Amino acid sequence: MNEILAGLYQGFGVALDPMNLMYVIIGCFSGTLIGALPGIGPINGVAILLPIAYSAGLPPESALILLAGIYYGAEYGGRISSILLNVPGDAGAVFTTLDGNPMAKRGEAGRALSLSAIASFVGGTIAVVLMTLFGPLLASVAIHFNPSDYVALMIFAFTCLASLVGKNPVKTLLAAVMGLMIASIGIDANTGVARFTFGIPDILAGVDFLVIVIGLFGMGELITLVEQQATGKLQILPVGKSFVSLKDLAVVKWTILRCSLLGFFIGVLPGTGASVASAVAYGTEKRIAGKSGENFGNGDIRGLAAPESANNSSAGGAMVPMLTLGIPGSGTTAILLGALLLFNITPGPLMFTQHSEIAWGLIASMYIGNIALLVINLPLVGFFAKLLTIPQKYLTPLIAVLAFIGVYSVVSNPFDLYMIIGLGVFGWLIRKIGFSLAPVILGVVLGNLFEDNLRRALSISGGDWMILIDSGRSIVIYILTALILFLPPLFSRIKAGIQKPAEAAAR
Amino acid sequence: MADKIFGYIALAISIGYGFIAFTIIKAPFQYDPLGPETWPQILSVVAALCSLYIIFLPDRIHLKILGSTLRRVVIVVVLLSAYAYLFEPLGFVLATILFCGVMSKMLGASRLEAGLFGVASGVLGYGLCAGLLDLNLPGGALFKALGG
């Protein structure tokens, strides 16, 4: 406990530094702004702005504070376009549209926006508190992990990804393996052998992480926006004067609390972020509401509060494995992890001792950021709503300009400008056929860690593969992996089994 | 159908990747039992199995890309490539004015709007990023002409 208090003391020292305080607020503000823009979610926002934050010469803790602010700020802002436009910024905001938009149609947009702001705030704050408590704890356990435990963790991470993210597990797995394959390009650090470079000098050191991120998420998004542009005019609903009442809060208080906890733990699972958290939260609340939940989908305030509190708390939860294990909890934290690697900081169990100013500074900044977001969002929601009227014809070229600035200012190599265009087309295409891009980026980020640990483990054993299931810890992790793999299909089968007789009885 | 085609492409890539991993990659001397080739070998096998699964059990998706949409996407890619091509020689300001002008025009802005938007994003973008944030952007032809 003392350790946590000392850490928080140090963290607030970092976060309350005037410059860092400014970065928290800039990050939260621009995050809300990015989240509010239709069609652009947290992952695209962080991807586009990462190289600019990197090459502006910020110290690592400030850059991470800024980018994290953009991340949870965008989770916050995503609700604005979901509610007012019925256009979710990303998959995590889809469930906000279900009840948020019907409320806005009834003329209660103000009520929906303020209620969801409070739900987001509570979710975010609970997540930071849990992060403060569990982060150091997990780090102190993880410090004893040996390479074969890490291999087990990686297998766990990719299993979570495959079984929980996306519709088709095989496609998700293939996407992740593609990411791992991309990561294997370049010179092998152990032996100095060049792999898959085909004699191209530009990729001897590997394909630049920034180029992959900006290509897949920046350019890919841009092409998607252009593609969707012709599909009719969007109707923006007025915000109005209605506001959340204490009675509303009394109705949703348990919903918010439950979903915040749920969101946090789903966020902690490697690879599963806001999209899974909000889906599970919405489904759970609907089931708990039972008979009174018939209104879900037609503007029930519980149906709005559930996904909003869950997606914000999952953003905090996703940072826990990133900081303590070096395994990102979501697609966006994979990009944050890549950002830390750019600064030559390898996140892992030693983060809390070796780079405590970064770990604790980030945590402290999230306390401040959540309050800042609430303050920004309640009165300024009308201003952000106006932003929705920024026409696509201006927004789309600006994304390209930002992406170009980002890549050029970091790498200064015109070859990479063509690379991001190519990756953008690739990202757009594979999204069209039902792949999600987050697993690719997780694969890219985790590739080296996975391979290094596997090779290190086998070096220890002299080539005996049995070392992978040698320790108690790794066996526990493999059991968890099996649970993740087999429980969800089992649950849905049981559920289907219960529903069928019930339906038959209803007839 | 689209799924199947993609499955075949992915299979081809994983076979090519696997071929290199199994035959070409070799370390002259190595200290660890796995060496640089084992990991890519594992990856290629997993990727090939996933591709085979997709080929034999494809999802039914109708890849709806209308002709007009496809044309717009192609135009955007061409515009982006032109922007990349001109980025260094013309410099950020001029290239951005051209790109933003043409692109916003294509997306439905009037000629005046497109022109104003292009100039604004080129000049303000350079001022903000190169001036205020001190990022490295190409000055290019414009500044060479001004500087003599």
Describe this structure in words.
The complex is a heterodimer of chains A (507) and B (148). Chain A is an all-alpha fold and 507 residues long. Chain A has helices at residues 2-15, 18-36, 42-55, 60-85, 94-105, 109-142, 147-164, 169-183, 209-228, 246-268, 274-289, 301-325, 331-342, 351-354, 356-387, 392-411, 414-432, 438-461, 472-506; strands at residues 186-187, 194-195. Chain A has one domain. Helices cover 75% and strands 1% of the residues of chain A. Chain A has a two-stranded antiparallel ribbon. In chain A, helix 8 crosses helix 18 and helix 9 packs antiparallel against helix 16. The termini of chain A are far apart. Chain B has helices at residues 2-24, 38-56, 67-90, 92-106, 111-132, 140-147. The mean pLDDT of chain B is 85. At the A-B interface, helix 8, helix 9, helix 16, helix 17 and helix 18 of A face helix 1, helix 2, helix 3, helix 4 and helix 5 of B.
